[in-house]
Amino acid sequence: MNLRDDIAQILLTEEQIATRVKELGQQISRDYEGKDLILVGILKGAAIFLADLVRAIEIPVAYDFVAISSYGADSRSAGVVRIIKDLDESLVSKHVLVVEDIVDTGWTLRLSYLLENLRSRKAASVRVCTLLDKPSRREMGVKIDYTGFLVEDKYVVGYGLDYAGEYRSLPFIGVLKPEVYGGG
Predict the structure, then answer these.
(1) Where are the domains positioned within the chain?
(2) Are 46 and 101 in contact (CB under 8 A)?
(3) Among 43, 58, 80, 131, which one is most buried in terms of CB atoms within 10 A?
(4) Are strands 82-85 and 61-69 parallel, antiparallel or unpaired?
(5) Where are the beta strands (DSSP E) in the chain?
(6) In the CATH hierarchy, which fold is given to the domain comprising 13-154?
(7) Active site members
(8) Contact (Cβ atoms closer than 8 angstroms) between residue 152 and residue 132
(9) Is the pTM here over 0.85, yes or no?
(10) In whole angstroms, what is the distance from residue 96 CA to residue 135 CA?
């Protein structure tokens, strides 16, 4: 099976992503110069983005991961958030930049559930960086501080984003054919 056969269209090429990640890294480096910065990647989707972003940041930076879920095996958000893996690092007096692959409904990052939790750990600041922002699907108010790309309401996969655990390894972001996920 070739995963690319399930892609209706390439939305963002590998080169476009690399260019934007480099720009984000430069902006974050300027904004956090002289500050104790820790990136908090949301597993599993943000792992690839976070790895590239860390390499694009030109100041000292630490990182850790948290695993949360608002989806089951379905393609739609369940609206229920669960913390599956918590942080290993202390956030006290650190500037936290939460790194997410995509923000659509906002449930995964809802303030009362994850962001407020991180703030309660005495972090100096908590901000959000997402590779993809899909504002047309927003159900919860979430402030995004750094955005890679705005995308339309299409089912996207690749570069860490998945459907049923597959397609994360694609080096680009593509639109999944509706017949693959049962969409119309």
Answers:
(1) 13-154
(2) yes
(3) 131
(4) antiparallel
(5) 7-12, 37-43, 61-69, 82-85, 95-103, 125-133, 146-150, 156-157, 173-176
(6) Rossmann fold (3.40.50)
(7) 104
(8) no
(9) yes
(10) 23
